[in-house]
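User: Let's play a game. I give you a shape written as tokens, and you guess the letters that built it. Ready? Here's round one.
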């Protein structure tokens, strides 16, 4: 890994409220930080992570907040 670059790797899929769709990914950066990257549809309510994250990782990405995202209405925001 190039020390001048921050690089990340996906460590978990974010599974939508429908329990079937992957709507985003959790990335661990070379700095150790975690971040969420959404698919092209943007933030959506999440039901679970696959594989599951530990409690500290869930707090870092505000998993509880991800489970409370309001559904988009008719494609309008």
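Assistant: Ready! My guess for every position:
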């Amino acid at each position: 890994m190039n020390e001048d670059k921050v690089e990340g790797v996906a460590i978990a899929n974010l599974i939508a409220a429908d329990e079937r769709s992957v709507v985003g990914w959790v990335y661990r950066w070379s700095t150790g930080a975690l971040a969420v990257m959404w698919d092209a549809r943007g933030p959506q309510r999440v039901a679970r992570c696959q594989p599951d994250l530990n409690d500290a990782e869930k707090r870092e990405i505000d998993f509880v907040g991800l489970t409370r995202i309001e559904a988009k209405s008719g494609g309008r925001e």
